[in-house]
Amino acid sequence: MPVLPAAHSLPKEERLHGKKDISALLAEGKWGTEGCLRYCSKPNSLEHSRIMVSVPKRLFKRAVKRNLLKRRMREAYRLQKPAGCPGRDIFLQFNSPEVAGFPSIMADVHTVLERISK
Q1: What span, in angstroms and rounded, lies between the C-alpha atoms of 78 and 90?
Q2: Cα–Cα dist 70/74, whole Å
Q3: pTM score, two decimals?
C-alpha cells in the first residue's frame, strides 16, 4: 500500500472525534442545508478546523456507496479547507438518495465553507 504525502491526507488532528466534542457540536452548532449536504458548524478553541462526515445507512444500504460518498466529501473539504475559516468544528451529512458526482459534492462543500466563514 503506497504511503501518501502529507499534502494529500487529512491529518487526525483535523478530524472530529470523541463523544464529548461531537455531542457539543450537534447540540450547540448552527445547522443548514446546501444541495445534497446537511451541515452543522460551531467555533472551537483550536487553531485549525475539524471535520466529521456521515452518510446515513437508511439512504444507502451498501457500505461501498456510503464509503465512496464519505471519501468524496472528505476530499472536497481537504482541497478547499483554506477557504473555510480556521477554528471551527464542522459536521457534513450526505442527504440525497442518489449518489452525487465529485463535482457536485465539491460545489456544495465550497458553498458550505463560504456560509460558515461569514
Answers
A1: 13
A2: 6
A3: 0.88
